[in-house]
Amino acid sequence: MNPIRHRLGLVAAGLGLAATAVVTVPPGASATPTWTTPVSELAVFASGAGVWRQVVGPDGTAWTSSWGGNGSHQLAVVSRRSPGADWDPPVTLSAADVDGSAPELAVDAGGTAYAVWDQGWPSSTWFAQSTPDGGWTPPLQLAEDGVYSTITAGADGALTVAWKDSAYRLHTIDRPAGSATWTDPVQLSPDGWASESPLLRVDGHGGVVALWRQISPIGAGIFMVEGAYRAAGGAWSTPTHVSDPLPLEAANPDLVITPDGTAVAGWRQDVVVDGATRSRVQTATSVLGGAWTDPSDLSDLATDARAVDLASDAEGVVTAAWTENAAGSYAIRTARLTGSGWTQAVTIGTSPGSAYGPADGVALDVAPDGRVAAIWVAEDETFSMSTMGATADASGSWTEPVTLDADASSTNPVITMSPDGDAVASWAGVTTSYVVRSAVLDGTGPVLSGLAAPSTAETGDTLDFAVDVADTWSDLGEVTWDFGDGATAVGPSVSHAFAAAGSYPVQVVATDVHGNTTRATATVTVAAPEPTPEPTPTPTPTPTPTTVPTPTVSAPRILSAHLDKARIRAPRKARLELRLSGAATVRVAITGAGRRPSRATVVRALPAGTSTVALGARIGKRTLRPGRYVVTVVATNDIGSSKAVRLALRVVRPVRR
C-alpha cells in the first residue's frame, strides 16, 4: 500500500454548529509507533548512491538530500515528500556536466527549504531554495572556492552559510530575513590552521553557533574541535577550543541547540589507554556564546566509540546516540542530558558481525514532546547489512529494534521527526541498481476536523453529529462517540436523542489501525420543551349570536431541521426538512464566509408538521459561489418568531464536461 491520506466522512449538519476543541492525543500504552511497509524508493542512480541530510517542515513535508552517479558525473539531488503522499520525482540541483556533493539542507518556520552544495573542480559553493510549487529556484553561486558547504536557517528565514576554501580556512556569508541580498563573506577560522567539517546551528534568539574540526597549525598534528558564536546582528567571537588540543584525532563533531539557547557539542576523541589508542564520545556545553564546559566522556571507556548524533526536545532534554565495539561486537548506545546531567547509557541494539559493525553509525531525532526515533545499519556474521529502527517514549523507554530493510548493501541512514511525532527515515542501498529508500514511522493519531454538533436542543429531538477524519500514513480504525448520557455510537456520522435536560459533554475518538488515537469534544445543552398553553375557555353564551374564536397564543417552534446533503454541486439540490409546531412563514437565509460573502434568502409559508424546502446553488437570481455557508432558519407568525436554527452547507464547483 502506498501511503495516502485516508479519510472517513464529511461534515454533516446538526441543529446549530457548536464551538469545538480538537486535541491530538499521544499514543497510549497499547499503541506503538509503527513503521509503514513497504519502503519507498525515492531516487535511483546509475552508479553509486548515498544519503546525506534530511529536514522536515512544520507541516510534515520532508526533504532528503542525496548524491548519485549518472554514469559520468556525481549529482547533487533533493527529494521531497508531502504528508500522506508519495515522494516527488527527485530534483538535480547541480550541473549535469560536473560532479556535485549531496546538499546540506535547512528549513524555516514558514516551510521553505534551503540547500547548499559543492560542485565542479576546483570546487565552488552553490545555493537554491524551494518554491511553493515543489520545485527549486535556479542555482546561485555563493563562493568560487568552497567545499564542505553547510547552512542554517532561523525561524524567520535568516540564513547563514559556511564553507572551507582551498587554504583550509572557513568563511561565512549571510542573507538577512526578508532580504534577497547576501552579505560579503567573513573569514571565521585563522590562516595557517587546517579547518574543515563546519556545522552551523541557530538559537531561539537569532544567534548562530559554529563548530568545526581543526588541525593547528597545519602539519603539527594537534587535533581539536573549535567553536565560535555570533549574537543576532553582531560579529563572530574569537574561536575557542571545545575539545582539548591533543596530538590525537578529534573528529565527527555534532551540535544541537536547546530551546533556552544551550549549545551541546559531541565528537569522537581518540585517547591512549594502557598504551593503546581508543576512541571515546565526548561532550561539552555552552550557553548563549558563553565559555564551553570542560569535555566529559559519554561512552564506555573500555570500548571504541564511533560518531555521536544529538537531538533535543521542546523541554531542552538532549538525547545522544552512538556505537561502541568491544570483543568484535557493536552496540547501539543512547543517553539523555537533563538538568542533572547525562543519564546512564543504555543499549538499544547490537550488531554481532564483523569489526565493521554498523557501517555508518546511528542517526536519531527527537519530537517536541520527547519521543525519539533512531535508525542504523547493522551487520551480521555473514556480512549482510540491514537497516534497523527503534523508538523511545518521552521517558526514554526504548522498543525492540525492527528491520526496515534487509538489503545487503544499506548505508548512510538519516531520520527526521515531524512536529507531531511522525518520522521519516532514508538510507542508500543497492538492489538491481543504486537506490535511495525511505520508510515512515506513524506515531500519531488521525486528524479530526469540521466537527458538526448542535449547541442546543430539546429533549427527544433527533440530533445529527459528524466529523471529518483523516490519517496521513495509515488506514483508519473505528470512530466512536460518547454522548455523556451513557449512550455511544460508531461511525463518522451518527444521530442521537437526549431523554433528559442538561449539559452533555460529547466526545468523538478516532483510532488508526496501529492504535494511535485522537479525540474531539463538544458540549450540547438540552432543555425540556416549552409547555403548550391551555386553550382559552369558551366564554359564557351571551345574547351575541356569534362566538369569536380564540387566537393562537404562542410563537411557532422549529421542532427539527435537517439537510439531506451537507454539500451540493449544481444542478443538484439539498432538501431542507422542517417540522413546525404550527403554521408559520419560514425565512431561510444562506450566508457565505469571506470578505464578500454570497447571500441568498428563501421565504415560504408552511403548515404545521413536516415540510421540505429545496436549496440549490442558484436561488432566484442569485448564484452561490463555491465555499462554505451557514443556513439560518427562522419561523414567524403573528405572535412572534422561533429560535434561529443554523446548519452547515458546502457548495462545490460544478463538474466541467
TrEMBL record:
SMART domains, sorted: PKD (SM00089)
Chain ranges passing through the membrane: none
Family annotation (InterPro entries): Ig-like_fold (IPR013783), PKD/Chitinase_dom (IPR022409), PKD_dom (IPR000601), PKD_dom_sf (IPR035986)
One matching Pfam family: PKD_4
Keywords: Signal
Domain named PKD: residues: 480-529
Record's protein name: PKD domain-containing protein
